[in-house]
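If it is no trouble, might I ask you for a protein's amino acid sequence along with its backbone structure tokens?
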Amino acid sequence: MTWSRHAMTYLALVVLAALTLLPFGLGLLTSFTSARQFNTDAPLSIPSPPTLANYLALAGVGFGRAAVVTALAAAVILLAQLTFSVFAAFAFARMDFPGRDALFWVYLATLMVPPTVTVVPLYLMLADVGLRNTFWALVLPFMFGSPYAIFLLREYFRAIPADLVRAARMDGAGTLDVIVHVVVPASRPILVTLALITVVTQWNAFMWPLVITSGRTWQVLTVATSSLQSRYDAQWTLVMAATTVAIVPLITVFVAFGRHIVGSIVVTGLK
């Protein structure tokens, strides 16, 4: 009975994985299909012959620049968020100051505020200082940490044995040395997990880039893909090629660092 139970479990997982991957496979096939074949053959038809015309056409509509802008914005936000979140989380986890816990819970309560509520105030503030339709308008609202990131790191930092921190301070380490040489190395799994979450979130951001930018200069991938649907009506082969280009970097990052997510969940002991 045990082997049959395992067989049924794996069969269910395979079926669910196939259902999940089917839309991505269909999009990939469509991206290599010519517009003529797509309009005449069945949707699940194998490209005959496969063509790169849809991918080559993306270069002519400014899609390459959108990919560069998206990657640069995600990289800047990632570095800034990790830096500020680590410092803030360490302060809330390991430093004593008046009102620490109250301030933390008030800050954490902002998670309940829908992001759409802050779009208009952020837009007005950045427009007033002349940053609308600039690169800094894309990244500034997300550079200084987030309640979720700080909460995640704070809980992880609190699990680090206090003896490690005390031993470092007895050796003459300052606060910055403790963070860099003790806390960060011990928190590598959760930092990688947070980095993946941040990259995926910023890579897929749509509303804020759509509101704060105009034209192609600072257009990101999500906005560029959306504009393709309106500018090239019914050319789904082109849209699927753009979607594939946007998804491949995320899949690559997840395959390369996905094991760290499991490592951050597993409870480990530190000596």
